[in-house]
Amino acid sequence: MINKRFVVGLTGGIASGKTTVANLFAEYGIQLVDADVIAREVVQKGSKGLTIITEHFGNEILLPDGQLDRAALRSKVFNNEVQRLWLNSLLHPMIRQTMLEQVNTSTSAYVIMVVPLLFENQLDSLVTTTLVVDISPELQISRTMQRDGVSQQQVEHILASQMSRQQRIDKADHIIDNQGDINLLRSQVARLHQLFLQQADELSIKPND
């Protein structure tokens, strides 16, 4: 469990700019705990996670160099709910545990936990406050098509599988509008950084319940 740390859960839909926002907080010396980075680490070559996955699916999900073949694994769980649930039940606790360990060993004034599916996977229960990076669906579609070289239909399919924009906004404690330029973004991050510093300081001097 997280021990009296002020943790900001940063989330947003695809191509909303979560990484950009997180990196702006990092410029203030704030530690980032990134669920996507950890998700890659728990299945890297030689990891317990990859060993269990290989035992379950066989060596065909490995590349010649022993690394995980992500495309092969995706094909195993795509449209197979049983296998997808098995994989999630293996990896999600590993990812969660590593996130908690990184938060508890962090030394910055507060911590930014970057989790794309923060609300969908109920990981908002691990954080002190939530911050949503918000852009319009139209911008999400155009940015994702440009960034990933995918079709509009593919992006719309991804959007349909995620929480809606309004649901995310309704759950958010704080919202960053990422539809303007980088200067607007920096000013919003600067304001929130000061707020989080103040709230983290207040949390640290509260007596234990």
UniProtKB/TrEMBL annotation:
Pathway(s) of this molecule: Cofactor biosynthesis; coenzyme A biosynthesis; CoA from (R)-pantothenate: step 5/5
Reactions this protein catalyses: 3'-dephospho-CoA + ATP = ADP + CoA + H(+)
Location in the cell: Cytoplasm
EC number: 2.7.1.24
SUPFAM superfamilies: P-loop containing nucleoside triphosphate hydrolases
One Gene Ontology term of the molecular function aspect: kinase activity
One Pfam family of this chain: CoaE
Annotated InterPro entries: Depp_CoAkinase, P-loop_NTPase
Function statement: Catalyzes the phosphorylation of the 3'-hydroxyl group of dephosphocoenzyme A to form coenzyme A.
Annotated PANTHER family: BIFUNCTIONAL COENZYME A SYNTHASE-RELATED, DEPHOSPHO-COA KINASE-RELATED
Name of protein: Dephospho-CoA kinase
Species for this entry: Shewanella ulleungensis
Gene name for this UniProt entry: coaE
